[in-house]
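Aim 2 progress update. The chain analyzed this quarter is reproduced below.
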Amino acid sequence: MKSDTSSTAAENWLALSPFPDERAANDPITRLIYAGSRTDESYAPMVKMDFRVTIRSGLAMVAMTRTYVNKLDEPIEAIMSIPVPVQAAFFNLSAVIGGKRYEAQAKSKRQARDDYEEAIDEGKAAVLHEELLRGIHSLSVGNLGAGQVAEVTSHWAEPLRFFEGIGQLRIPLTVGDVYGISPLEDVDTLETGGPVPQATLRIDHDAGGIELTSGILQPEDGGGLFAQVPSNAPIEIRMLKPKVAALTGHTADARQVELQIVPEAAATERLNAAILVDRSGSMYSGCERSGASQESKHAAVVRGLREVLPHLHSQDRLALWEFDTSCDRVGRSEGLEHLAAFARSVSQLRQPSGGTAIGHSLRTVMQAHAGADILLITDGQSYQLDVQALARCGHRVFVVLVGEDSLEAKVGHLAALTGGDVQFSYGTDVGMALRACIQGMRQQRATEPLCRMDENNQPVKVRTSRSNAAIKALWSSGTGSEETGSGFARAVAAYAASLAFAGAGEEQAEAIAIAEGLVTHLTSLILIATEGPAQKDLPRTIKQPIAAPRRAVTGNQGRVYAALPSDPGLRSARAMPLGAPLDPVMPLSSYTPGACYLREPRWLDWENLEWLGAMIDWNANAAGLAKGELHGLPSDIQMMIQELACELDDLADELSTEAELLVIALAALAASKESRQAARVYRRLTASVDGDRLDEYADSLGHQA
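Predicted structure tokens:
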């Protein structure tokens, strides 16, 4: 039981927090991790999602429309970081703002970001779609005025995943808790726990039949299908007897492209593979749609491994490993007489416990099995792997992601780089997902170069293999049929361009992405509303959390974060071992007004400015701070700004401004690398002063640009 002193201290600390939350009373760094976030349904700006799926000859085009409403009396910037399919080609962004439709342009990532920030500074509404990591994108809707509505539509194209005559499409909408220190800015890190907005799904297809894992499809006028779907679970579509035919598209430079997606026949190559099973704490959580037993993800994996035993051959070489915070060999099998031993090894897999040392475990298995394929079975909820380094180790990596809350980023990117594949399972179909990966592992490695260019660095031919399908794209100078101007023909050209992008050099790849309007690690999509009233104040940044997975997590699989004494904020967060008790540097009773955040003494040096910058919630207070208003800040922070300002009277006179504004500007400069809003405050406050003189002063304090 907490002491009265501790309880009072917690209440005082929470009272100062811009976004009070019970978690903050137990973890002094939670305020920084969740700064600027609100999960209250009445506050979240995104209120509706609509999906329109068109499937033709093995290629799916998905149009996603998100409706945002500003429910505040001040401008907002709504930011949503979302999981996306690693292999998909994202193209074409449009928005209806203030009743007028705008179309996005593809630009280099830096140029698109600069244009977006310039629009924010000028008070114009703008939308930015960018790739943060392979498998994680960000959609930013900036300067949405009070009461204003924005409908933002983005498109992506991806081939179906094929297995035994069935084509599958997965639209990810949720993700579980992701472990390890995020490589993303705080505002970009995936966050769950938001409201569950209304979601509708419409499908038009040419297959022999269709199934929807969650929801009931109903016919619509015109031949399409309609369903209401939960937005707290991925959308899984299964196509029965998908059609196989050539598709035609039309590129931005008026060339014709023909795309063929042909399911590959089952191969008979023998397996040389190591199977790596995740037994971390997150695998203890339940599988949705796993039957009345409500088995855990790990139990479903064990069952699935047993189901694939009849599909193994006597010549197959297999090794079985498991990992949590460590990686251990369970058994190996070679030849018919050892398949029974492999079955016994499956029975020896231990129950889930511990952390998720996924990167270390992959390296361990790769070192033990030179040249072998790796089959990783996990829920993918970890940032802790170096994708580029692992991809250079010479192994194909195949992945089975288990559970509705699985994350394709990182592990999916690794599979794509190594020529492997990703399959998904809700629980009942783990065995089928495993067999689909085994089918891919039996295919020979591709030897043909991925992409061939002409003398003008334009793509001519691409041949590759993905998701148990052979894919070929051919470009020609013909203008194609009238159909090439349709929306789906645009998807054909965009997906073909994404294949060429993957096989081109960086300069060629960027040119291809800009020409065809792709969102990639080199390019983003940006649109700016040129009409409508300009917003005078900086927008409040609101991070829209994605809905939490509908299956509640039952295991202890999170990581605890605590502050280090030498360095505050997210820069000093450290991940503690799984299950370790919270052991903050100071007892909770020390986190009281006056001792909660601030260091003593409070003289003006760059270290104190960095400390101050890390303690300010820039997302919530940017508009006020840009005008020198301090009333939205905790009293301790107000006091520190006022005390530091006493040392800036002479500089303030020289620059014809107020000393408190200079302190805010310098603190914003110190935080600008971690906070976009801090950078905006700095630009706003220094627009009318001698910026060179202020930069010179910041350098004298220890600032390094």
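The two ends are 48 Å apart (CA to CA). Residues 1-40, 552-598 have pLDDT under 50 and may be disordered. These observations will guide the mutagenesis experiments scheduled for the next reporting period.
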